[in-house]
């Protein structure tokens, strides 16, 4: 799939986004229309007294891109400088606690921005590799392209660290009330943008995203590929930190350190944390049961069993804060380790054999146009060794994030969460391509069946005519 240029006549209406077309179908038509358009532009330029060269008045795209990168780097240096100076103003005993609190507010949004950047890369590779992702996810013609995805990610990358810098600066300078307003305003602005009911800010894409979330929480209808695909991604996101952030905002504990006590309402020992951690797995479990009800496929039950293995990991880990140390060491800790091994092994097996189906050679990196990545990635054995090996390792390390009693080091947790998003980024390539191959095989089978039926009808008609 290729996007029609902005000056193409194949547009829905003035001021709207270009409609995506298949290049093979419209190549001749586009060529004729483009020549006609150039002719009209030539006539317009000759109609004036002195022809104007638009390319000479506008800066080149490369120059414009370099200027944007320069501004981005300057902005990043300013944020780092202000943040570092502000942190150094704090006393040493308070500095670590405050950074941990700031991390909890902004960590989920930073990881979400990383996920959006990587999703844009996924879409770009799909477009280059000839994978019709719009058909797979049942997207309309106004779906976001990889360029628009990157634009959203860029704004997220700018806004979230800016708000974090303002939070640190205001708190270090004694403006606690203003500092406390920063994460609250940021989260409120994100919610408002998502639910804004007017046709701006990519309304159709926002509606599709919210509708899919609704179908995940309440699987009252047949499960589509987009439903369980997004639900799988949610299992890789950091909902426990999001829950604690929202809890502090609701209880007006932002920009304080009182909540750090274990028995506080939003503390790390809260029973709400494992409940929030397990929610994405329960959603996916219910989807599998719904899929089994609709299709009768036993593999759906086996998939549901895979998601259920995450439940013991989460709750056995949380028990450390609610049982005696001897009970934890002698009984619950071995059970937790066993459940972690079972969950990681089962999930890894399912990724490779079911979600990816690497029994045949994948062609995800065989781009429709010659490209450097084609040479580096397509058909290379090291690519699949790396993907399978890293998936196994990162499946095991994700258990660290699921375990409530191992979240004492926020930098380690952030690194592991970022690595899990990278693992999911790799997983998306092969999961989507596997679905694309299934759709193609199904279409070929239906086409062959239709041709066979037509041949039988023609033969029967001929026999009747001869008789």
From TrEMBL:
Its main location: membrane. It is a multi-pass membrane protein. The chain crosses the membrane at residues 63-84, 104-127, 152-172, 184-204. Keywords: Membrane, Transmembrane, Transmembrane helix. GO terms for cellular component: membrane. Residues 264-463 form the EXS domain. It is found in: Membrane. This is EXS (ERD1/XPR1/SYG1) family protein. The lineage of its organism: Eukaryota, Viridiplantae, Streptophyta, Embryophyta, Tracheophyta.
């Amino acid at each position: 799939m290729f996007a029609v240029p902005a000056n193409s006549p194949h547009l829905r209406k003035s001021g709207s986004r270009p409609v995506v077309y298949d290049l093979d179908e419209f190549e001749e038509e586009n060529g004729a229309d483009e020549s006609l358009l150039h002719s009209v532009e030539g006539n317009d330029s000759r109609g004036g007294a002195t022809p104007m060269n638009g390319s000479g008045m506008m800066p080149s795209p490369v120059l414009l891109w370099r200027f944007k990168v320069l501004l981005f780097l300057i902005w990043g240096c300013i944020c780092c400088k202000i943040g570092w100076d502000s942190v150094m103003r704090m006393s040493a005993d308070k500095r670590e606690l405050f950074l941990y609190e700031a991390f909890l507010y902004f960590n989920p949004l930073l990881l979400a921005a990383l996920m959006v950047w990587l999703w844009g890369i996924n879409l770009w590779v799909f477009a280059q590799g000839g994978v019709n992702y719009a058909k797979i996810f049942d997207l309309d013609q106004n779906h976001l392209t990889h360029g628009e995805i990157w634009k959203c990610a860029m704004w997220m990358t700018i806004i979230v660290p800016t708000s974090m810098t303002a939070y640190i600066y205001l708190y270090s300078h004694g403006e606690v009330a203003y500092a406390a307003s920063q994460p609250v305003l940021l989260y409120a602005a994100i919610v408002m943008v998502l639910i804004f009911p007017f046709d701006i800010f990519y309304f159709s894409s926002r509606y599709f995203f919210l509708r899919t979330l609704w179908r995940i929480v309440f699987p009252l209808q047949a499960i589509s590929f987009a439903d369980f695909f997004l639900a799988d991604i949610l299992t890789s996101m950091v909902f426990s930190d999001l829950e604690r952030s929202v809890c502090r905002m609701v209880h007006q504990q932002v920009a304080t350190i009182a909540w750090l006590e274990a028995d506080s309402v939003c503390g790390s020992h809260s029973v709400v944390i494992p409940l929030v951690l397990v929610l994405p797995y329960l959603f996916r479990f219910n989807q599998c049961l719904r899929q089994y009800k609709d299709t009768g496929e036993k593999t759906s039950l086996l998939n549901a069993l895979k998601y259920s293995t995450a439940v013991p990991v989460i709750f056995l880990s949380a028990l450390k804060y609610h049982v005696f140390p001897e009970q934890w060491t002698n009984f619950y800790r071995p059970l937790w380790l066993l459940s972690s091994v079972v969950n990681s092994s089962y999930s890894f097996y399912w990724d490779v054999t079911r979600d990816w189906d690497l029994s045949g050679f994948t062609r995800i990196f065989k781009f429709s146009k010659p490209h450097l990545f084609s040479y580096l990635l397509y058909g290379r054995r090291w690519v699949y060794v790396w993907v399978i090996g890293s998936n196994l390792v990162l499946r095991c390390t994700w258990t660290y994030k699921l375990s409530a009693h191992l979240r004492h080091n926020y930098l380690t947790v952030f690194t592991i969460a970022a690595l899990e998003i990278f693992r999911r980024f790799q997983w998306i390539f092969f999961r989507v391509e596997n679905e694309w191959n299934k759709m193609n095989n199904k279409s070929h089978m239906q086409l062959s069946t239709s041709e066979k039926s037509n041949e039988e009808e023609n033969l029967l008609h001929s026999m009747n005519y001869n008789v």
